[in-house]
Design brief:
This protein is of the alpha/beta class. The chain has one domain (3-293): Alpha-Beta Barrel (TIM Barrel), CATH 3.20.20.70. It contains twelve helices and eleven strands. It has an eight-stranded parallel beta barrel, surrounded by six helices. The radius of gyration is 18 Å and the shape is globular. The model has no long low-confidence stretch (mean pLDDT 96).
């Protein structure tokens, strides 16, 4: 584990850029960027276009470690190059941004109001490759729709079981049990999730460190008890479908929580922008999300 990177993630001022759209979410991300589905005719072409978009973001003047502490990559992005360097190497050596990689393989069918993660048969190989490339940590996402105790416990149990496997390899796992922002039981689901996470944290040994990526809560500072736990490096917020304005407003009211936004961060960026216009728009986004993350 890189101690400088750990200190940056534990106490640095800034946020995490989530650049890990994959599978079914890639066409939507490209569409928001102004590239329709008819513009590509294979998965390979789609991934090439996605990497071009991500490269434009990662090489932007505003993409630097004094505001963007870390970046979550899709596996395909981790295995590609930026400016003739492996992407994780470029992020750390050129931008001082800590690299993470998404490791989950999507969501299983909903059971008891929640969707656990699909099996990850290639996880061991992916982790070994990530370590070789200088990746600091991982991220994996589950999804909670209802305040169902069995469903929420199943999500938390799976996240912590796999998270401990990842931590034993010397990586820091970001556990992401997302709660649906449209859930009719969002507040109660948040309470149940927080309690289940606190209980699971007590089962970790001293050197098993995790990060938590959570939906912005209905009650401000609701996740403060999680931030105070010694095994938690940082609690970060996903935008979850909120606009950047709404997500930033909610985040600013949750002290100590920092952003890990995806679509909300890249909102307004399009492929046909001039470099000057792109840089201005992205700087505005970075400034807004950074300001909300340092409250």
């Amino acid at each position: 584990m890189n101690n400088e990177q750990l200190e940056q993630m534990r106490s640095g001022s800034g946020f995490i850029a989530a650049l890990d759209q994959s599978g079914g979410s890639t066409p939507s991300a490209l569409a928001h960027y102004g590239i329709p589905r008819e513009a590509y005719h294979s998965d390979a072409e789609m991934l090439d276009l996605m990497h071009e978009m991500r490269t434009r973001i990662m090489t932007d003047p505003s993409f630097r470690g004094d505001r963007i502490l870390g970046a979550i990559l899709f596996e395909d992005t981790m295995d590609r190059k930026v400016a003739n360097l492996d992407t994780p190497t470029y992020l750390w050596t050129e931008r001082h941004v800590v690299p993470f990689v998404k490791v989950d393989k999507g969501l299983a069918d909903e059971i008891d109001g929640a969707r656990c993660m699909n099996p990850m048969p290639g996880l061991e190989g992916l982790l070994a490759r990530a370590i070789q490339k200088g990746v600091f940590g991982t991220k994996m996402r589950s999804f909670i729709h209802l305040a169902n105790a069995r469903g929420i416990q199943a999500v938390v149990d799976q996240q912590f079981e796999i998270g401990r496997t990842i931590a034993r390899q010397g990586l820091i796992p970001i556990l992401e049990p997302e709660i649906d922002i449209t859930s009719p039981e969002k507040s109660e689901a948040e309470r149940m999730l927080r309690d289940a996470i606190l209980e699971s944290l007590e089962g970790l040994v001293t050197d098993e460190l995790v990060m938590l990526k959570l939906t912005l809560p209905e009650r401000d500072d609701f996740y403060a008890p999680l931030m105070q736990h010694p095994n938690v490096v940082r609690v970060v917020a996903l935008s979850g479908g909120y606009s950047r304005d709404e997500a930033s407003s909610r985040l600013a009211r949750n002290h100590g929580m920092i952003a890990s936004f995806s679509r909300a961060l890249t909102e307004g960026l399009t492929v046909d922008m001039s470099d000057a216009a792109f840089q201005q728009e992205f700087k505005s986004a970075v400034d807004q999300v950074f300001s909300a993350s340092i409250t």
